[in-house]
Amino acid sequence: MREKLKHELEKIKAEGLYRSLPDIDEGAGKYIISGGKCLLNLASNNYLGISKKKELVDESAAALKAFGCSSGASRVVTGNFSLYNSLEKEMADFKETESCLVLNTGFMANLAVITSLAGRHTAVFSDKLNHASIIDGIKLSGARHIRYRHNDMAHLAELLEQYKDTEEKIIVTDSVFSMDGDRADLAEIVRLAEKYGALTVADEAHATGILGGGRGLARELGLEKRIDVHMGTFSKALGSFGAYIAGDAEIIDYIRNKGRAFIFTTSLPPAVIGANLGALKWLRDNPSCGHRLLEKAKTVRIALNEAGFDTADSSTQIIPVIIGDNFKVQQAGTLLEEAGIKAGVIRPPTVPDGTARLRLSVRLDLNDEEVQHVISSVRRLKNA
Ligand code: PMP
Fold it and tell me: Is the model's pLDDT at 15 over the cut of 90?
């Protein structure tokens, strides 16, 4: 067994896929301090740069002081802190849904949703580029896992037709894809779901705080009432940690009662709930922040496309710069670091083989000069 582990690790290294964890002093802020260097942070998902805002820090500190460091146990055992009620009510209000449930992470939210709703007799239709937690949720549920080609609605329609006699059907999709920054065709997904009688689950992790006045892509498209389960995170644009699901009271109640990733885990500590309340307040006070961020990202994307870079179908703050080779992408990441910029260096299995890429997360707090510096630094990679 030990020999096998050693061999596998050596193989991972030989393929340029080894992952190490560099020492950093701060990860979510505008700058990452790493190895004594201060780098512009285009690697984090703190897209709005709000993790240190007064609204979040003050509410977090107040909750910490009032309730201490721990929530004690699972909420189904010890009961609910009033803070939880406030956050779930605030979020349901914001999303204009009947109900909301807060979960510990986005990963666990997807596990809870999918394993609750799907079982051996369910067919789950899932975009090939959906997040790993969706894939793992489907596997764990024992459902039939039916993957459709990325954003290929004709393929989805074909598969739904093939399974039309299966009574229980779910279509699940990221709304903004985490490594490509493109958007799901939610209008067509909803139309097909209604035609074939499927439930819909939208993972709005990267759209929350950005699209639809912060409420997500479904809201931006006016489809929010036609999605059954809206999942989103506090850990990305909202600058904090944790996740929520929102929908009608019955479906949320069902997941609350069936979701093992909710029931069998200690709930988030009060300080995190406080920060999440502060983040929601900040978002309500700054409704145009997502739009401003998208404009900034558009400037970067257009300039990179003009310079001949492949940014896939990105139309959001996430801009992939497709390099292809696992070693070349690491070199590109190092060159960007020499220019003072930290980008995500993304390799398989996070993305399909042959599509290794730099992942630029454009941030709202970049000024014009910094935007231009990012553009010129990436452009220089062409000559490297
Ligand atoms: N869904 C998507 C689309 C994601 O990108 C991520 C995080 N990368 C998650 C879920 C998991 O969220 P969390 O980090 O809160 O576990």
Answer: no
Q: Which domains does the chain have, with CATH numbers?
A: 16-45+288-383 (3.90.1150.10), 55-285 (3.40.640.10)
- Ligand 1 center to residue 29 CA distance, Å? 19
- For 350-366, the pLDDT digits (tens) are 999 999 999 999 999 99
pLDDT of residue 301 exceeding 90, the answer is yes
Atom 9, ligand 1: which residue's CA is nearest?
A: 106
Record the pTM.
0.95
* Cα of 223 from ligand 1 centre, angstroms: 22
Gap from CA of 104 to ligand 1 centroid (Å): 11
pLDDT given at position 76 = 86
Secondary structure of the chain in HEC code, one letter for each residue: CHHHHHHHHHHHHHCCCCCCCCCECCCCCCEEEECCEEEEEECCCCCCCCCCCHHHHHHHHHHHHHHCCCCCCCHHHHCCCHHHHHHHHHHHHHHCCCEEEEECCHHHHHHHHHHHHCCCCEEEEEECCCCHHHHHHHHHHCCEEEEECCCCHHHHHHHHHHCCCCCEEEEEEECECCCCCCECCHHHHHHHHHHHCCEEEEECCCCCCCCHHHCCHHHHCCCHHHCCEEEEECCCCCCCCCEEEEECHHHHHHHHHHCHHHHCCCCCCHHHHHHHHHHHHHHHHCCCHHHHHHHHHHHHHHHHHHCCCCCCCCCCCEEEEEEECHHHHHHHHHHHHHCCEEEEEECCCCCCCCCEEEEEECCCCCCHHHHHHHHHHHHHHHHC
Residue 227 pLDDT exceeds 90 = yes
pLDDT classification of 264: cutoffs 50, 70, 90: very high
Pocket of ligand 1 (CB under 6 A): 105-107, 110, 131, 133, 174, 178, 203, 205-206, 233, 235, 243
User: Percentage of the chain with pLDDT > 70?
Assistant: 100
